[in-house]
Amino acid sequence: RNLSAGACKDVSAAELLYTGPSPDETALVTAAAANGFALMARDAEAVVVRETEYAASMPFTADVRYERLANLEFTSERCRMSTLYRVPGGQLVLYTKGADHVMLPLLVDKTPHDTLRKCYDHMQEFAGRGYRVMLAGTRVVEEEELEEFRDALEAASAGLVAARDEILQEAYATLERDLRCLGVTCVEDSLQDDVPETIRYFQDAGIRVWILTGDKMETALNVARTSGMLRPTTEVVTIEGEWNAVRRQVDALLTAVYGPDHAAAADP
């Protein structure tokens, strides 16, 4: 059955079919359900998770309600999103997920070095396989922090449009800090049908094909190989760093390939 916002008292976790606008989130929720944490209901105020535990080798399930207090939305600039819940027992807990390059600085102070090293190794492995990789973290939030956050949101909604984003980002930053690493997730992003053949058709016609991506370098290289953009005989040159350093590396590479007059020779 498709997940609805209502209660699912008479529905088993195995009967649920999750749908949503993000294939990544659908995959992650499905994987969580397969491991004993099934999302059973969701609305603007709360989520209900059917949690399975084992006692004396016997499964015990309970539907647990988590009150949703705030969503810190994803943007391409933030590269992360967070949700604040009041969990059973009354504690406030923030959960954050996002790209590794923005998450690692938020995790480094509260996560043991060995844990971060294992996460980094997993990220490199998954990215090398072409998977989309995210890091997840959490922290306990104090009631006073929640009140300050709500005050900031109110100030942002009442303020000028020009200052609204700045106030929001500052408010988000007060919560998204000192996170403890929960782990790494990866989702396979399969190519659509006939992608390698289409790219080869363009290349044979003399059309230059580029990949522009925000993914990790390892993921981009894997996609380039599986899509046929990089052939077995292709020499790969890696250029990275801040803009001026990149320009110098590109200039040196073009000079080595085309000579001092590379600007004219390399023009399409």
Looking at this protein, list some descriptive labels:
268 residues, alpha+beta, Calcium-transporting ATPase, cytoplasmic domain N, 4 domains, 7-stranded antiparallel β-sheet, disordered N terminus, disordered C terminus, ATPase-coupled intramembrane lipid transporter activity, nucleotide binding, HAD_sf, ATPase_P-typ_cyto_dom_N, HAD-like_sf
Can you offer a commentary on this structure?
The termini are far apart. The protein has four domains: 1-70, no CATH class; 73-189, Calcium-transporting ATPase, cytoplasmic domain N; 192-236, no CATH class; 237-268, no CATH class. It is globular, with a radius of gyration of 23 Å. A hairpin with a 7-residue loop joins strand 3 and strand 4. The protein has a seven-stranded antiparallel sheet with strand order 1-2-3-4-5-6-7. Residues 1-9 and 264-268 have low confidence and may be disordered. The protein is 40% helix and 24% strand. It has 268 residues and is of the alpha+beta class. GO terms for molecular function: ATPase-coupled intramembrane lipid transporter activity; nucleotide binding. One of its GO terms (cellular component) is plasma membrane. It comes from Cryptomonas curvata. This is Phospholipid-transporting ATPase. One of its GO terms (biological process) is phospholipid translocation.
Domain unit count: 4
Q: How many angstroms does the end-to-end distance come to?
A: 53 Å
Name of the CATH homologous superfamily of the largest domain: Calcium-transporting ATPase, cytoplasmic domain N
- The geometry reads as globular
Largest sheet: 7 strands, antiparallel
CATH architecture field of the largest domain: 3-Layer(aba) Sandwich
CATH class of the largest domain, anyone? Alpha Beta
Strand content: 15-25%
Q: Helical amount among residues, as a percent range?
A: 40-55%
Low-confidence stretches: 1-9, 264-268
Q: Helix/strand/pairing class, anyone?
A: alpha+beta
Number of alpha- plus pi-helical segments: 9
CATH topology of the largest domain, anyone?
Calcium-transporting ATPase, cytoplasmic domain N
- The count of DSSP E runs of length 2 or more, i.e. the number of strands, is 7
